[in-house]
Amino acid sequence: MLIRQQDIDRCYRILDTLPPKKRTVLVLHEIQGLDIKEIAAIVKAPQVTVRTRLHYARKEFYRKVAAGEGEGRERPPKKGEDA
């Protein structure tokens, strides 16, 4: 599967718009590959809470993708990244 850099940048821009708690569980699960139990230990929340946050994070992420959000400008560099 070929993923274009602009698609990756768009995903990061959308991730940056998610509330921190949702973004954290989504990144830990989908990008880092951690399971629910591991994430629960990291964020110090019950597993059911992590599952709920993950559900709503995915839902919000996909809604933003479908709405065309995140298209256009490049993702601004994060602190510590080269500009």
Furnish the topology, listing elements before pairings.
Layout: H1 5-17, H2 20-31, H3 36-43, H4 47-66
Helix pairs in contact: 2-4, 3-4
Give a written overview of the molecule:
This protein has 83 residues and is mostly helical. The chain has a single domain, classed as Winged helix-like DNA-binding domain superfamily/Winged helix DNA-binding domain (Arc Repressor Mutant, subunit A, Orthogonal Bundle), CATH 1.10.10. It has 4 helices and no strands. Helix 2 crosses helix 4. The longest helix has 20 residues. The model has no long low-confidence stretch (mean pLDDT 88).
List keywords for this structure.
about 80 residues; mainly alpha; Arc Repressor Mutant, subunit A
Largest sheet: none
Termini gap: 28 Å
Provide a count of the helices: 4
Shape: globular
CATH class: Mainly Alpha
Proper CATH architecture: Orthogonal Bundle
DSSP strand tally? 0
Number of domains: 1
Rg calculated over all Cα atoms:
14 Å
Compute the average pLDDT: 88
Could you say what the CATH topology is called? Arc Repressor Mutant, subunit A
Based on secondary structure, the structural category is mainly alpha
Order of helix and strand elements from N to C terminus: HHHH
Proportion in β-strands:
under 5%
Low-pLDDT stretches are none
